[in-house]
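Table S2 (continued). Query chain:
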Amino acid sequence: MREKGNIEIHFARGTSQRYNRRMVSPDAELTAVVCDLAIEVGFSRAGVAPAGDLGCSEKFDEWVARGWHADMTYMGLHESKRRRPDLLVPGAVSVLSLAVGYAPDGEDSTEGAPGYIARFARGRDYHKVLKRWCRELMDRLCEIAPDFAGRAFVDTAPVMERSLAAAAGLGWIGRNGCLIVDGLGSYVVLCEIVSNLPLVPGSPVERACDECDACIRACPTGALDADGLVDSRKCLSYLTIEHRGPATEEMISCNRSLYGCDLCQEACPHNSDLTPGDDELISWNGPEIRLADVGGWTAEDWDIATRGRAIRRAKYDMFIRNAVTAAARLVE
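Corresponding output:
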């Protein structure tokens, strides 16, 4: 195995850097074994999507055309590879879509909690956890399929992870734009292994939102569209994690968070009565981050508090900005 940027590239012993094309016939028995191995490694769910044309990019194209990707200009790049994983990874025939749950252990809410940190970012950095599991899984795949070659993606490269997970039958994309998995809700993080394994694709499941619009009503800035599109320009999750500029009107008027927002997920009926997620993702043994302290942070304080955690995505000046807008809610 070697690494190229944030993408793991794993070649079975004796294979070349291009995928072995002898594996062409879908194999149901191999598919079952691979999915079972994924669960043994630690993943909560595993399913298969084809590596060819997803045929489901219309909503994504509309989202970009509306400008709802805000400053995430990279989302408009590499269109062909985003639609076809086999162009991203030449010779690939299948995508193993993997999900891990991070449902909270106990009740707490964004509402009335200035200084909130989104649930997915409270434990160890999920990128590191999922990468480690992908490496272990790929090592085991080499043992059962000597011709295996594949790449693992954890929030890297132009991969439509929710669309792939939906195509694999792991769940459906809800009105808040999140993938909703039966038994895990929308509290899931995703990754993929794109490979030459001849796996049998799953079947998409029907969206089970019925006429529910709880998530839409729960969003304080009106960022959600009924078709499952999210206007990032208004979304507090985007604004506190990705937006690099000064506080926006939405942040000044509504933000209670240091990092992210879970209000639309808390309102979702599919997120009630869930078994707590993976312990590494929902718990943290490092220093506690308190709103009252963040305003006085130095750059070194930020470095210490965020090391090994997904919250490091928001830089020092962004944490200070978020703390100022969140603290304003204390005097309302």
